[in-house]
Amino acid sequence: xxxxxxxxxxxxxxxxxxxxxxxxxxxxxxxxxxxxxxxxxxxxxxxxxxxxxxxxxxxxxxxxxxxxxxxxxxxxxxxxxxxxxxxxxxxxxxxxxxxxxxxxxxxxxxxxxxxxxxxxxxxxxxxxxxxxxxxxxxxxxxxxxxxxxxxxxxxxxxxxxxxxxxxxxxxxxxxxxxxxxxxxxxxxxxxxxxxxxxxxxxxxxxxxxxxxxxxxxxxxxxxxxxxxxxxxxxxxxxxxxxxxxxxxxxxxxxxxxxxxxxxxxxxxxxxxxxxxxxxxxxxxxxxxxxxxxxxxxxxxxxxxxxxxxxxxxxxxxxxxxxxxxxxxxxxxxxxxxxxxxxxxxxxxxxxxxxxxxxxxxxxxxxxxxxxxxxxxxxxxxxxxxxxxxxxxxxxxxxxxxxxxxxx
Length: 407
Description:
Helix content is 60%, strand content 8%. By secondary structure, it is of the alpha/beta class. The strands form 3 sheets. A 5-stranded mixed β-sheet has the order 3-4-5-8-9, with no helix packed on it. Strands 1-2 form a two-stranded antiparallel ribbon. A hairpin with an 8-residue loop joins strand 3 (321-324) and strand 4. The chain is globular.
């Protein structure tokens, strides 16, 4: 805590919450407004236990166990050190995944690690689609309801894109230290660019929005969180002061993400198109990154036009539309005219971690591509203003009228 003595208490709590989420998977340690910022900048996948972190943990565990096993000649004669390292890395990674909550990214990663380890021990080589499909099948068998979760599709599609594009083998700029560094930078850029292109239509289908600043944010956040913040957060299990170090390392990144999230063009919000337009857009994203001639890939982008140009419904001039949102007790009414939209009341706060603005109203606005001009709060009761802060975070441009309970 002494390391953070010069930092505002709310910023301390936010940074320490991220450190806790990275160490033990406690996502509730991260405040809702911080989650909104991470979603708008496209880095929310990094702010809890992810497949990348578990893979790094497995690699470190295999390295340490392998080195220790090689110290004993008798142990190496009984069982080869590489096999011991593989088994220990997978076993410890599975234990870490179970400890952190056994989420979908953890399940996917552990399944793939098990398959890869078995194939290496058997001396077999499978095509990447077989490994990918086997991990997908195991996750679905263990949890069939995973098919209804957005994280399932985003996670598996991202990994499939990386495997299909073979982003690891990117750009050799020479054997010098500078050349190797540039090669790694190019590989990271190519990886993020491919994932951003492939997942943009899927994100539009699932969330009704695409993060424009996500590519830049991920280029900075992925190496920093993976190589600096996460190791310090994990080290806190042995050295508690390392948690303060992880929080201190998060502070400059969170400032940058906050600045990116506040840009007026940070998020591209579109009305949710029909299912057939979404399918065409997803196909366009996959074809765009496929190893095809440039002309064919450019033609494939035309498939995304119906989703990108899907019209937004507005009332005719002189008419208005009133939409009452089902939020339980309280009010939440969207009033639309030919040029403006007003939200009258923002629904109740269900608990300290949940309210109607985050759970119902903001997703509804995103799905219909609606941007509010103003939010009218009739009075201060929590069943009328409970979701106002979440709406303000999701749409910073909205003007607030009426009650002064939300600023």
